[in-house]
Design brief:
- It is a single chain.
- This protein is an alpha/beta fold and about 375 residues long.
- It has 16 helices and 11 strands.
- Strands 1, 2, 3, 4, 5, 6, 7, 8, 9, 10 and 11 form an 11-stranded mixed β-sheet that branches.
- α3 links the parallel β2 and β3.
- It is globular.
Length: about 375
């Protein structure tokens, strides 16, 4: 998932290849008895992830001190690119745990057999609707809803009610107002396509997109361009003089606008059309052939712990999946609860994703 904050530091992470989040936790080895192993695999556990992984330093250091492991994070581009690299290195993984495969790519990961089954400690606290793999090859870590966001000021000025559903978006009053991302190149773009599949079915989504195209939907390559350049409601869009008051983003985007607003607003300047959403669920799994399997298991346990789950919302702007985690006030005050997001079964996505994207591209882009 992309957010304003996550863009910072990506170039540096890519240049370095491996980002060490903390160097503590390994302990002093000078008093170890003769013959004790100093092999790095016994002290270091490596998390392979997309570029958006983040955690508060103090939270990570507490895990390292308690577990005795030093965590390194290998950031590998977006989720699709990161997964592709793990498939190519199957059996000789670049790390011990992979984080960031979501329900749009899950079947591909499982079919390629890159994970070792492991039932995480704390899994009982995960809400059952998020446990999509009964063999526990992957563990649910977070969820987020891809939704249309709207510019509150625009609709107040025009005295038009903002759209709330997918059906609304094809109405004449919303003509030439929506910008979305390319489903072939963008995670939220693909999620929005899947929302239409979930809503209208495999036989009806093309007709919906024909209507959406006729109603002036604009398609750009990615979230950064859509949200921070074309969308009139975001801080970046205002600076870029964006003129689209509707954008495909996330249900967590309004809290981000509040958190990083200068000056910080008392109310989010953007809203969420809750009837347009597709739910993403992200997972972590113990990589098959991991050099530090025990450390990997400990790290997966940490990712579903209450400490990490409650830290995650303001670090990655996603929702926890455990029953005992409490959301920060920023989310509860400025965010929205999406009660009925659209969903498509991972196996259905795996079977049809490529042909859906090709058909969407021919219909909407070309």
């Amino acid at each position: 998932m992309s957010t304003t904050k996550k863009i910072a530091g990506v170039a540096l992470a890519a240049a370095l290849g491996v980002t060490t989040l903390s160097a503590c936790g390994g302990g002093d080895t000078k008093d170890k008895p003769a013959g004790a192993s100093d092999a790095p695999k016994s002290k270091t556990v490596t998390l392979v992830s997309h570029d958006s992984f983040n955690v508060t330093d103090t939270v990570l250091k507490e895990f390292e001190q308690q577990s005795g492991y030093t965590v390194k994070v290998l950031k590998s581009g977006d989720a699709g690119a990161a997964l592709n690299q793990e498939i190519l290195t199957k059996g000789s993984p670049r790390g011990d745990v992979f984080f960031g495969v979501d329900n749009t790519l899950l079947s591909r990961a499982l079919d390629n057999g890159i994970f070792t089954p492991y039932e995480a400690k704390g899994l009982a606290e995960v809400k059952p609707e998020y446990v999509l793999d009964k063999e526990h090859r992957v563990t649910p870590i977070d969820s987020g809803d891809i939704c249309v966001n709207y510019d509150k000021a625009y609709f107040a000025e025009k005295k038009i009610a903002p759209p709330q559903t997918l059906d609304d978006l094809v109405k004449p009053e919303y003509k030439n107002l929506l910008v979305t991302e390319n489903a072939a190149t963008s995670s939220p773009g693909l999620g929005f396509l899947l929302a239409s599949v979930g809503k209208y079915g495999e036989d009806g989504w093309k007709d919906y997109w024909s209507k959406l195209k006729a109603n002036g939907v604009e398609v750009v390559d990615g979230w950064e361009q859509a949200y921070n350049e074309r969308f009139s409601g975001s801080a970046g869009g205002k600076k870029a003089k964006g003129d689209r008051p509707l954008v495909v983003s996330y249900a967590s985007s309004p809290p981000v606008e509040v958190l990083y607003g200068e000056p910080q607003p008392t109310e989010a300047p953007t809203g969420v059309s809750t009837g347009t959403c597709f739910r993403q669920i992200e997972f972590a799994g113990l990589l098959k052939g991991a050099k530090n399997e025990e450390g990997g298991k400990a790290l997966v346990d940490f990712l579903v712990s209450k400490k990490f789950q409650e830290d995650m919302p303001l670090q990655m702007f996603v929702n926890p999946v455990t029953k005992d985690a409490t959301l920060p006030e920023l989310f509860t005050k400025h965010g929205v609860v999406v009660d009925k997001p659209e969903n498509v079964a991972p196996e259905t996505i795996a079977k049809n994703r490529e042909q859906w994207v090709k058909a969407w591209t021919a219909l909407v882009v070309k």
